[in-house]
Design brief:
Pfam families: HEPN (PF05168). This protein is an alpha+beta fold and 297 residues long. It has 2 domains: 123 residues, 2-Layer Sandwich (Beta Polymerase, domain 2); 151 residues, Four Helix Bundle (Hemerythrin (Met), subunit A) (Up-down Bundle), CATH 1.20.120.330. Helices cover 58% and strands 12% of the residues. The protein contains 10 helices and 6 strands; from the N terminus they run αβαβββαβααβααααα. Strands 5-4-1-6 form a 4-stranded mixed beta sheet, with helices on both faces. It has a two-stranded antiparallel ribbon with strand order 2-3. Helix 3 links the parallel strand 4 and strand 5. Helix 7 packs across helix 9. The radius of gyration is 20 Å and the shape is globular. The mean pLDDT is 92.
Length: 297
């Protein structure tokens, strides 16, 4: 892995240095911090605004950061949520990139490396090591063939995509019963979560343990700019609908004050339908790419 960020823009270096300091000071048993994704590969976007599919979108690459610990993962995740909030407070005076943290135990990382789980092997191959305690070693991965990668991607798509469509179909068939809107919101959240996971599994063979749509959406957008347009945030109504969908995983089941209208559900169904179509097309294109590589290899 590379070990320097000096080639990155100075503002980027400044933000990463602050994040690194916050993580090292707050996360117990932190063993390694690895920057991966677009900033590690060099194809990051600092800021871009455009109109695609009739929707105005603004885009900037996130900081994809893997935090490896030999302690409690859940405890580290809770601390990273607070770190993210503090980081945003520190840079609220200017536009800045958002961090997307993934936390894994060193044993989990090494187990995945040993079976050539290519989300982790790509991180090791392309990533930038920001911090290393020197107390842990990473396993040496075996390189998967494109035939193996294709088969894994096809199997995951065949399992997850119909599951997501099933949740969406349940909502569409049963809408216009206001007493059950909370149930429908939860099912719609599940459809969206499964679609995001389908993309992640096909493109990386990895899905995080998170149910947060904000995090999952942030992770998949690097595979296609189209995915940024699924849930536009240009109006208060659009923001409120997406917020209600994100909250539905917990609040639609356990919060008696959670409310969502049939009109809001209809809007969200239309957006998740768009995500469904994008997911099918992007995943099939990626599997076809794997297949071509397998045949040529």
């Amino acid at each position: 892995m590379k070990k320097s960020i000096k080639h990155l823009p100075k503002r980027t270096q400044e933000e990463l240095t602050v994040l690194l300091d916050l993580v090292c000071k707050s996360v117990d048993n932190c063993q390694m911090i690895i920057l991966f994704g677009s900033y590690a590969r060099g194809n990051y976007v600092l800021w871009d605004t455009k109109i695609e599919f009739g929707v105005r979108t603004s885009y900037q690459s996130d900081y994809d950061i893997l935090v490896i610990t030999n302690g409690a993962v859940k405890r580290a995740e809770r601390k990273l949520e607070r770190i993210t909030n503090k980081y945003h407070d520190l840079f609220e005076y200017r536009r800045h990139a958002f961090p997307q943290f993934i936390v894994e135990h060193i044993n989990t990382v090494n187990n995945n490396l040993e079976v050539s789980q290519y989300f982790f092997t790509d991180i090791i191959k392309e990533g930038i090591l920001l911090y290393d305690s020197g107390k842990c070693q990473l396993a040496k991965p075996r390189k998967l063939s494109f035939r193996e990668i294709r088969d894994i991607a096809q199997n995951e798509f065949s399992e997850l995509y119909p599951y997501a469509c099933g949740f969406l179909d349940l909502v569409k068939l049963s809408l216009h019963n206001d007493q059950r809107n909370k149930i429908f919101a939860f099912l719609l959240h599940q459809a969206c979560e499964k679609l995001y996971n389908t993309i992640l599994m096909v493109f990386t063979n990895y899905r995080p343990k998170s149910h947060r749509l904000q995090d999952l959406g942030g992770m998949v957008k690097r595979f296609s700019m189209e995915l940024v347009t699924v849930f536009p945030q240009n109006t208060d109504g659009e923001k409120e609908c997406f917020n209600l969908l994100c909250r539905a995983y917990i609040e639609a089941r356990y919060n008696k004050d959670y409310k969502i209208t049939s009109e809001q559900l209809e809007y969200l169904i239309a957006r998740v339908e768009i995500l469904k179509d994008m997911t099918e097309r992007l995943c099939k294109e990626k599997i076809a790419e794997y297949n071509a590589m397998a045949e040529n290899g």
